[in-house]
Amino acid sequence: MDIAALQSLYADIFAEWVRELELEVRATSDDGVTLALPVRARHVHAGGVVCGQTLMAAADTALVLAISHRLGGFRPQTTVQLQTSFLRPVGKDVAEVTVEARILKSGRSLVFGEVTLRLPDGQVAAHATSTSALL
């Protein structure tokens, strides 16, 4: 799938609140996709940083797109496990976070992946690993 097809898939299959993240597909590779997550005031909690739920939703969404890219199209799937480590805060002044999703192994029914969420200077803000079941 190319960037335009993945962006269209994002607009078509995800819940409205996920689309409100305004993720933008920036690049593809053989094993994954790279997205941009624009930081908006609605993503920032009272502590002045982007809430973890926003980062986890972006990671999970990126993996669905990476799996779809690997399979050559969308196939119904569900997240079985998503483990996220938050390494650095994403401050309210950050313009966007880069979300890099990569497929580690794809089987007949399970797909294993990882996501790195980076600050504009390249530092890792969060890292997630995931297992998804193909339905």
From TrEMBL:
Keywords: Hydrolase
Spans traversing the lipid bilayer: none
Family matches, as Pfam families: 4HBT (PF03061)
Molecular function via GO: fatty acyl-CoA hydrolase activity
Lineage top rank: taxon: Bacteria
Boundaries of every Thioesterase domain copy: 48-125
Entry-linked PANTHER family: ACYL-COENZYME A THIOESTERASE 13 (PTHR21660:SF1), THIOESTERASE SUPERFAMILY MEMBER-RELATED (PTHR21660)
Family label: Belongs to the thioesterase PaaI family.
Name this protein carries in UniProt: PaaI family thioesterase
Organism of derivation: Scleromatobacter humisilvae
